[in-house]
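okkk here we go again. third time trying to get the adenosine-5'-triphosphate bound version out, last two times i messed up the smiles copy paste (missing a bracket lol). double checked this time i swear
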Amino acid sequence: MARAFFITGTDTNIGKTFVATLVARALKARGIDIGVMKPVETGCAVKDGALVPMDAVALKEAAESGDPLDLINPYRFSPPLSPNVAARLSGVEIDLIKIETAFKMLSAVHEIIIVEGAGGLLVPLNDDQNMADLVVRLKARLLIIAPSRLGVINHTLMTCECARALGIDVAGVILNHPAPRPDDASVKYNRSEIERYAPVLADIPYTPAGDILPELPEALLKVFK
Ligand SMILES: Nc1ncnc2c1ncn2[C@@H]1O[C@H](COP(=O)(O)OP(=O)(O)OP(=O)(O)O)[C@@H](O)[C@H]1O
Ligand SMILES: [Mg+2]
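finally!!
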């Protein structure tokens, strides 16, 4: 049975996939057999008549995974909306058992599984269940991706507080810089303030396309050992 890590964020579009692919590449380079999942992806474009889950494809490539895309990504939808709404508009109900079944199949053949959520921790998956319910069901440790900007302390602590209240093991926070913020004075203080509450495992610099990708610190890689 693989060890599972669930990548959530304090928001959407803040670098979950960016960081997850860095982690997948780094673990792969260390000879670790890694599986990936993006259980639900919304906002998928249509290519040749089929929906393309870009995050799932990026994760699959980074992990050099030969697993079928339908196991990596059991649910994909066109509307760029939260999973429950996108599913409802598509006439589908997201079933956590279907996700868990795919997860177990991947778990049986890999050392580590990295699962990327969608949006944040309490994003609804259907009328009764949300992403946190899925984390609990998969017995995954949580990694919280947080964009270093004003407001991130509150968003990160809320996510940690919520996870801990639900019995989810928070492995740590990864601060990310999805855009340069030269005028944001908070950037200097975010790490030390969040560290008072949860381990900050990495501070990923802004890395525009074409630049050499950052090395991940040992503190982060150690979490996967
Ligand atoms: N450290 C970084 N340096 C440069 N660009 C970044 C960095 N982190 C994220 N980005 C860019 O920011 C955008 C959003 O990142 P990403 O797609 O990883 O977010 P996400 O949290 O996975 O979004 P979603 O909620 O849609 O899954 C992407 O264009 C990505 O390339
Ligand atoms: Mg993503």
